[in-house]
Amino acid sequence: MPTASAPTSTSKKRKAASTSAPAAATAISFATPAIADKLARIGITREADLILHLPLRYEDETRIANIRDALPGIPGQFEVEVQSCDVMYRPRRQLVVKCTEPASGEDVVLRFLNFYMSQVKQLSAGKRLRIFGEVKPGFFGAELVHPRYKLVGEATPVPDALTPVYPATAGLGQYQLRSLIERALKRADLNGSLADTLPPEVLKPLRLSAFAASVKTLHHPPPDAVLIQLAERTHPAWTRLKFDELLAQQIAMRIAHNTRRDKKAPVLKPGKSLQQKLLKSLPFALTKAQHRALAEIANDLAQPHPMQRLLQGDVGSGKTIVAALAALQAIENGYQVALMAPTEILAEQHFTKIAKLLEPLGITVAWLTGSQKKKERAASVEAVESGAAQLAIGTHALFQDDVTFKKLGLAIIDEQHRFGVGQRLALRQKAKVEAHQLMMSATPIPRTLAMSYFADLDVSVIDELPPGRTPIVTKLVADARRDEVLGRVRAACSEGAQAYWVCPLIEESEKLQLQTALQTFEQVQADFPDLKVGLVHGRLKPSEKAAVMHAFQSGEVQLLVATTVIEVGVDVPNASLMVIENAERMALAQLHQLRGRVGRGAAKSTCILMYQGPLSETARARLKVIFENTDGFEIARADLQLRGPGEFLGARQSGLPMLRFADIDKDAALVEAARDVAARLIGENSPAVGAHLDRWLGGRTHFLKA
Question: By residue range, what is the domain housing residue 150?
């Protein structure tokens, strides 16, 4: 499908489209406060939410099977007559109900390990039951443990649709959920709220079924429905619901993008003087991809509306220098810049590198972090407030209440997915007028994910590495060969190189039984008394971490034992060997980021991934991908498939409902179609925009401000 272009409707039209939603769908008037509270736990606060609370799976209660035909592991529905019902006490207290199947004369036992005494009377001899569960061989022959059952008569009809099984929560069972959903569906039928939000000219070309019919089919599939299509969500009814969900997301993100373009921001015209001086001082030339990204950023900064751009690139692609050049454009226009990083290690790396580049140009760079001494912090805060510091670099300390910028024009957020919505908004709100925002990520974002969750951003990609980078050799080694690995580390350090040894935990965990940083540190100190070994982990004081990292960067420490705090930002060109413990436990993006800490100099670099067997299928798949690929975009695509968007995105979309029904990898074509339709509906100022957003989001779009 063709790529949608940005809508060209006027500001007035866009505002109309974004506010044309009908009144929000009513709260659940027929739910008691206690039930409403339980529903809210699973995200249901309106009757529309009940209707869109779709089944996880289905059970077939439309036919009654014979016990002798039951297949192992497959639950079925059977009809039996109770012969006796007794409480037994050996080997443990349990309710044993002996039954006979009238149709075949087969005997079967129902066993309840948890029961109420009222069930003894309820399940008395002569009662006819319809039971649902898995038949297993037991001491007395065929038996079902804790089957679902109901009392029936000889002529009680079976349901005419498959029985839905819904996502539930404690204190809210399937029976109650079904009852509530049924009531919501009946009320929606009567008040017309199942009417289509989308016009026929949208539905017809995409061959989408009607909304009402699709919802009813998913809640009550007919007995002849293709179960595999329902299970794999390829049924036409699922296609319609997935498209609608994606469309709501696309509309909301595009409106957020357009709303930001209606705001005023300082016009930061490209200034050549400072940028040219910095470029001349560099010992290398920018790559074509860096020049392209810089041009896109420069153009955005020169616009009268706030930039909202994501700069993404693989490990070592040179995002920091592009950010520094963008900062110079703001500074040359008389504005301040804030650069925020998620960890002190990364923030300090940026401060050290950027201050070294910019201070010779006469630019004052302030350093702000939570661990600063009171006097040092006060001096930094004063420099930022007075405007003496044109650039402030730090952690979340940058947006604390006592920090005031004199004239903030650009906020740069590194590893932006590690910050929540509130944190990013707090930094941008430090500006007296709307500030431009540049977000950076070293985790390449697959195209479908960018189209879906980053549809509100403009994206620049640095898709090439600087020339001269030595490819990193990746090796997979079983933990049983630890002695060989230790020998490899000793040899590398003895020859003048430096090495990392990365562990996933700080201290002993009986549950996971993983090698820990503390244990490894003690072991290598004992094994290598002639080597200087450092230790860095998240529980060290920032000053202690900084001291160890400085010693490693200066070459004083030869081997650095660390947790994943060194995942991003650490740049030591002489470090050419990395060992990662328990690599099978880590996500692909994390492994790729860690591996990127080596290979930053001219020496041949190696990353050894040590694993403990036996490997699960997922762990084996992860290690295969990281072993075979060095391309961050390919690794990111595989990571998305293995983990799903929720984990992949981290905190970026805090407050944004993750997609419940659509799969952005499998449903890539639907993502593109939804993007096209969203652009068209907003451009036409269609009333469908408001109605559709109300049905799917119900006004929950505050997260789009970040």
Answer: 63-158
